[in-house]
């Protein structure tokens, strides 16, 4: 009996300690790890929210890019970090939900080794070509790919990236065969699409929007079921004859598993307050994204469902990484 009471008392004290730490959190700088390169949507979103959180918390919120291995390097760093709320992960579905199926072995479990906090936004991907490309529209691209199997090339931010899975899904859906040219980040990939060294690429709307508006890229389709408000003239792939094509991934915050729930709940509440503000809504809208927040528990269910969904896409595409 005494031992049982001791365990209950210990649990109660841990809960009180967690609540106490949440009331004062943060008392020192917070690090946000981005497992992708600078310049992409993940980096842009992370830096915006981090800046606002730093103001709200009165503590530095430092964004650290740890790119490599389709997001595995940075994600592993957070999985193995102290579960105290001072190291957070800002990532997107294309890394967190896809890698679990893409790699035969991972040094972490995408679900079990993390505490979900909240997503902040969703955004579709534009299918883009260079502004001087002879490809004028989506149907033109498909026709050229069918006429010369393997001759049309597509750029991605790396092997196993969601950019690659989108293009491979298009290969399957349209009955075409385009050749994959991987890069170490979407910025480098788009540079070569602009120059014409590579024919096309899928890029998250925030990564491509200004290049499209600036006349360097031409958006010929969007991956979501509905047209994107930032460029409503760009048709969806679904309306081009492929009704099942609908991809609009989330971007969001996670922490190492075991982070006190009271801290997770405080971080979630503060992030939601930041991104639901009118100024933030306008920022994300200008980036072609929609603000999207949930409770930690709801985010957990979304992540679990996405892991199952992308496992099917990965299997159909045949993509695998060691």
Describe the protein.
There is one protein chain. By secondary structure, the chain is an alpha/beta fold. It folds into 2 domains: 27-123 and 249-317, Bordetella uptake gene, domain 1 (D-Maltodextrin-Binding Protein, domain 2, 3-Layer(aba) Sandwich), CATH 3.40.190; 125-240, 3-Layer(aba) Sandwich (D-Maltodextrin-Binding Protein, domain 2). 45% of the residues lie in helices and 18% in strands. It contains 12 helices and 11 strands. The chain has helices at 2-24, 41-57, 72-79, 93-96, 99-102, 138-147, 162-174, 186-195, 205-213, 261-275, 278-286, 296-317; strands spanning 30-34, 61-65, 87-92, 114-122, 125-130, 153-156, 179-182, 200-204, 217-222, 250-256, 290-291. A 6-stranded mixed β-sheet has the order 2-1-3-10-4-11, with helices on both faces. α1 (2-24) packs parallel to α10, α2 crosses α10 and α7 packs across α12 (296-317). The protein is globular and about 65 Å long. The N and C termini lie far apart (51 Å). The model has no long low-confidence stretch (mean pLDDT 91).
């Amino acid at each position: 009996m005494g031992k049982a009471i001791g365990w209950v008392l210990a649990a109660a004290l841990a809960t009180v300690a967690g609540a106490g730490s949440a009331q004062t959190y943060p008392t020192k700088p917070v690090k946000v790890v981005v497992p992708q390169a600078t310049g992409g949507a993940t980096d842009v979103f992370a830096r915006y929210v981090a800046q606002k959180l730093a103001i709200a918390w009165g503590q530095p919120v430092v964004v650290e890019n740890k790119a490599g291995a389709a997001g595995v390097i940075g994600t592993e760093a957070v999985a193995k970090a102290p579960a105290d709320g001072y190291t957070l992960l800002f990532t997107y579905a294309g890394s967190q939900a896809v890698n679990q199926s893409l790699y035969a072995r991972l040094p972490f479990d995408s679900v079990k080794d993390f505490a979900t906090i909240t997503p902040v936004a969703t955004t579709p991907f534009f299918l883009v070509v260079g502004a001087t490309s002879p490809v004028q529209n989506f149907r033109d691209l498909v026709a050229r790919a069918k006429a010369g199997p393997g001759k049309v090339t597509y750029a991605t931010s790396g092997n196993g990236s969601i950019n690659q899975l989108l293009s491979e899904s298009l290969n399957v859906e349209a009955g075409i065969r385009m050749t994959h040219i991987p890069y170490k980040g979407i910025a480098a990939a788009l540079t070569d699409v602009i120059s014409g060294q590579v024919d096309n690429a899928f890029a998250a709307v925030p990564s491509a929007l200004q290049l499209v508006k600036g006349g360097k890229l031409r958006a010929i389709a969007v991956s979501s079921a509905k047209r994107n408000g930032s460029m409503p003239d760009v048709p969806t792939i679904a309306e081009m004859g492929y009704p099942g094509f609908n991809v609009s991934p989330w971007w969001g915050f996670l922490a190492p598993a075991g982070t006190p729930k009271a801290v997770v709940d405080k971080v979630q509440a503060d992030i939601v307050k930041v991104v639901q503000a009118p100024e933030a809504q306008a920022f994300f809208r200008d980036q072609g994204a929609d603000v999207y927040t949930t409770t930690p528990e709801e985010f957990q269910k979304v992540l679990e469902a996405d892991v199952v969904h992308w496992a099917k896409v990965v299997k159909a595409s045949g993509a695998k990484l060691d």
